[in-house]
Amino acid sequence: MFFGQYLLSRGVISREVLIDTIERQRETNLSLVELAVREGWIDPPCAEAILTRYRTTDTDLEELCIEYGQIDREKLEELLRTQKSNWVKIGAALIDGGHLTRDQVEEHLAAFEKMQEEANQQLEADFRACKDPETVKTVIELAVFHLQRFTNGPVKLQALGEDGGTLFGGRRRYAQKLVGDRELYCAIDLPSEVATVMAQGFIGVPVEDDSEVAIDAVCECVNIIGGHACTELENSGFRLRPEPPFSTDEDDFAGKIVSAVCARVMAGEFEVDVRVFV
């Protein structure tokens, strides 16, 4: 849960106030690429190339800005200082908008941080308790990392637990089988809104909801996650290879596999399920 959603769930602010505040944050909180374009150090086509590479690899955005633009280390540090000095957190935005006082923000933030600390401790305990914890944690953390890159928005792991792998209505499953020293499926169950944002972020052009182009693009996103998982796990001594990714609206796609470790993930205002079938 993000701080804004916490305030909403406690009835401290309304949904309208939250949406308005987030929009004002987006206008103020510019990315490094947007700042570089504003300064004239990167042109728009170059910016799009940087963002495409960033979403589809694990390369740092700072390194890509230097590689693609007319930027050296000194200019990069200047951009980072500008970004840091102008960055507005949601609490400050709520104060500036007259929705909350500073004392109210500090009080609720302290309670939220305590709740988050307890939730993180529970997540670590849940990872240790699940079957094949190293594999599960590697896949889920990579999925969360790349979801944030593909959607270019806030993504947070909420909770972890075992379930039957049920695909809930209104979602589509994007999955991949990893085979080798062990066999498992990694799957991401997405509402169409998140799938569309992922697809557009990956290929860089608008797509229609649930279109073949969108589905193929998200499958390729899953392929990247699976490929990175194989590389990470190989460093731990497990040799795996990914099979072609696929998408389905069927529930029991994995055949005989009837249980999974499920990570509840928030992608903006939408809930996403990341599952590892082991």
Report on the architecture of this protein.
By secondary structure, the chain is an alpha+beta fold. It folds into 2 domains: 3-96, no CATH class; 130-277, CheC-like (Chemotaxis protein chec, 3-Layer(aba) Sandwich), CATH 3.40.1550.10. Helices cover 55% and strands 18% of the residues. A hairpin with a 2-residue loop joins strand 6 (260-267) and strand 7. Helix 4 (44-56) runs antiparallel to helix 5 (61-68). The radius of gyration is 20 Å and the shape is globular. The two termini are 27 Å apart.
Could you give a quick summary of the protein structure above?
The chain is 55% helix and 18% strand.
Give the number of DSSP strands.
7
Oligomeric composition of the shown chains: single chain
Could you say which structural class the secondary elements and strand pairing correspond to? alpha+beta
Q: Radius of gyration, Cα only, in angstroms?
A: 20 Å
Element layout with pairings:
Blueprint: H1 3-9, H2 15-28, H3 32-39, H4 44-56, H5 61-68, H6 73-86, H7 90-96, H8 102-129, H9 133-151, E1 155-163, E2 171-180, E3 184-191, H10 192-203, H11 212-234, E4 240-242, E5 246-248, E6 260-267, E7 270-277
Antiparallel strand pairs: 1-6, 2-3, 2-4, 2-5, 3-7, 6-7
Helix pairs in contact: 4-5, 7-8, 9-10, 9-11, 10-11
